[in-house]
Amino acid sequence: DAKTTQPPSMDCAEGRAANLPCNHSTISGNEYVYWYRQIHSQGPQYIIHGLKNNETNEMASLIITEDRKSSTLILPHATLRDTAVYYCIVPAASARQLTFGSGTQLTVLP
Amino acid sequence: NAGVTQTPKFQVLKTGQSMTLQCAQDMNHEYMSWYRQDPGMGLRLIHYSVGAGITDQGEVPNGYNVSRSTTEDFPLRLLSAAPSQTSVYFCASSPFDFYNEQFFGPGTRLTVL
Questions:
Q1: Given an 8 Å threshold on Cβ–Cβ distance, is B106 in contact with A43?
Q2: Could you say which of A67, A91, A107, B101 has the lowest number of CB atoms within 10 Å?
Q3: CB of A16 within 8 A of CB of A78?
Q4: Which of B43, B87, B88, B89 best tests the A interface by mutation, with the highest count of A CBs <10 A?
């Protein structure tokens, strides 16, 4: 798997956009970027994934730089319920699994 | 749909005991997997299955067995529990392979004394 680097923690004010960065400078051309989150004590929840184009769904937007060496997950209007650990994952094309690292603890403040 | 269900929610074992953690999904997903999560850590893959009758090892398979006799069920067996297996165990499923969105169960919190 391409190694990913995320800040250990971030804060965001409720109602504001939360921008979570992820560095994956060793990513290969056919490897996807996945984002999951884990709310305390619950199972992880899929958010979004992408290859090279920006992606948007009902939960978030994923912005991947043109060189694909980094990406940003955007939660457009963060709520208290978005407080969670966010994992950026780049599995190797030949891998059969997702590898969860330490992630970023996002705390949404009232 | 109930999604991915896991039983039990909590379990306490003594060293050397064996037990089976149950996982079931009602979404007709081919891919299922088991992860463990130790305190303050990310998830680590134990075993996975790409369909009934097919299983393979993940990152940390030692001390665990799996089988996949049906599409719906993917039990995880602890052969002889050790304190190092104290963890929270999550089961997940996805339609075809891990590339698809994975749906996780609520977890089983296991303590081995």
A1: yes
A2: A67
A3: yes
A4: B43
